[in-house]
Amino acid sequence: MARSTLTIEEAFIAQHPGSRARYERAVRDFPSGVTHDARYLRPFPLYVERASGPKKWDVDGNELIDYAMGHGALLLGHAHPAIVEAVTAQVQRGTHYGAGHELELEWAERIRSLMPSCERVKFTASGTEATLLAMRLARAFTGRQKILKFAGHFHGWQDYAVPGEKLPFTARSSPGIPQAVFDTVVVAPVNDLAFVEHRLSEGDIAAVILEPSGASWASIPLPDGFLHRLREITQRYDTVLIFDEVITGFRWSPGGVQGLLGIQPDLTTMAKIMAGGLPGGAVGGRADILALLEFRDDPAWNQERRVQHPGTFNANPLSAAAGCACLQIVADPAVQRHADAMAARLRRGMNQILVRRGIPGFVWGESSVFHIVLGTRCANQHGEDIRVPEGVAPEVLKAGLSGRLGHLLHLAMVNEGVDLFHGGGLVSAVHTEAEIDATIEAFDRALQRMDDEGLFASLAAN
Fold first, then answer.
1. For position 164, what pLDDT does the model report?
2. Which pLDDT score, from 0 to 100, does residue 2 have?
């Protein structure tokens, strides 16, 4: 293939003048010109005009196969007809009643039918709010102050979720978060159940919270049997177990990871797919724990013991309409099976390209997600689908597609008509073999462009 006269970054700039112009406006309004940290991209992020199914079109008319998928919220793809119809009908009836409504009842009933661990449900407006509420409930229920989380696991941006999430996992401070917050959060080393059991035996841990996929939607996978053993340990020490299924919920199976493996946590946090791509979240779980949110004919209880939880947009009718429509569809396991199969096809195809080109790197994941690493080999890279990369440090897996190689692969893939997310992506139930195969071909071309620029020369000896 002849080398382009433009570098990858120059080609990106040339193909996206409309996005560049909007970014120049955005930096006057938003810090770094973005409204979500994950959308930050040098030299500028993309601006999208419309989206449908597995694709979106930017303001310059470029068509992109999308793997951001609403940051994981769109298992059914963009603008699914059933969700569009439900939201369109509801918006004409009202967007906020300041009162209860029929759809919130249906929404909760659908969640409870798919996740039997959710005896009761309380809605929030986001996944971050859901993890915050779950932690508060666990503290109130147990009378203990500390939360144990695992290194690398993401639970939103609220203060108690930040410790141990980013590299280095041992950092003991973060701008704007009081040290007292860090003092109430215990960060367990990656997948270390011996550490968990030791800390729980000390009797001061209210809850253990984790992504049941492993850190950052399976970027650091869990060993087989891990969740069952963790459930046994938390029960032995009367500690609340919280599954953060904001991403895995209704994606790993109609009942999330817990439904797939037959494990019942005490509390579950949900968002994204649960709300059909609109804002919304929830905490579901044991009735005795959720009872802490109840009003009683007891002023002392209501004032001193009841856990408070307002929220202007909790269970708002628009999100409820979208959520009900979505959950009705994803209750069919064929939805998840198709997305899983497409993701496996993508991981396998990308790995075959890396092996054929002799480029150190691998693509891994489970269910309908994938992650990419360049510049590092794993022991089981043979051009096949990979769930657990062997012989690779957790820090490398968490870092994923970072650094200069990751940055330029992202730009090169956009130039070739594919938008990745966090060094990988999430496959929807409406991606077909055509989009998957086109993505594999785009990956091949992107690697060729990177090779043309000499980006892999220093990796030959790795």
1. 95
2. 43
What is the reported pLDDT for 1? Answer: 38
Crossing angle for the helix pair 403-415 and 8-15, to the nearest 10 degrees = 40
Which of 244, 162, 248, 256 has its CA nearest to residue 209?
Answer: 244
Q: What is the mean pLDDT of each run of 10 residues along the chain (462 residues)?
A: 75 97 96 93 96 98 98 98 98 97 98 97 98 98 98 97 95 94 97 98 98 97 97 98 98 98 98 97 98 97 95 98 98 98 98 96 98 95 94 94 92 98 96 98 97 85 46
What phi-psi label fits residue 215: left (phi over 0), alpha (psi between -120 and 50 degrees) or beta?
Answer: beta
List C-alpha distances in Å: 136 to 142, 152, 269, 289.
10, 21, 12, 11
Crossing angle for the helix pair 433-452 and 333-357, nearest 10 degrees?
Answer: 30
CA distances to 121, 156, 165, 188, 365 from 210, rounded to whole Å, are 19, 12, 11, 10, 17
Asked if 57 and 79 touch (Cβ cutoff 8 Å), the reply is no
Alpha carbon 297 to chain centroid distance?
A: 40
CA distance 457 to 88: 53
pLDDT of residue 72: 97
* Cα distance between residue 325 and residue 122, in whole Å: 19
SS (H, E, C) the chain: CCCCCCCHHHHHHHHCHHHHHHHHHHHHHCHHHCCCHHHCCCCCCCCEEEEEECEEEECCCCEEEECCCHHHCCCCCECCHHHHHHHHHHHCCCCCCCCCCHHHHHHHHHHHHHCCCCCEEEEECCHHHHHHHHHHHHHHHHCCCEEEEECCCCCCCCHHHCCCCCCCCCCCCCCCCCHHHHHCEEEECCCCHHHHHHHHCCCCEEEEEECCCEHHHHCEECCCCHHHHHHHHHHHCCCEEEEECCCCCCCCCCCHHHHHHCCCCCEEEEEHHHHCCCCCEEEEECHHHHHHHCCCCCHHHHHHHCCCCCCCCCCCHHHHHHHHHHHHHHCCHHHHHHHHHHHHHHHHHHHHHHHHHCCCEEEECCCCEEEEEECCCCCCCCCCCCCCCCCCCHHHHHHCCCHHHHHHHHHHHHHCCEECECCEEECCCCCCHHHHHHHHHHHHHHHHHHHHCCCCHHHCCC
Distance (Å, rounded) from C-alpha 93 to C-alpha 102? 12
Give strand pairing partners of 121. 284
CA pair distance 48, 425, nearest whole angstrom: 17
pLDDT for 401:
85
Is the full-model pTM beyond 0.85?
yes
Name which of 342, 456, 390 is nearest 65 in CA terms: 342
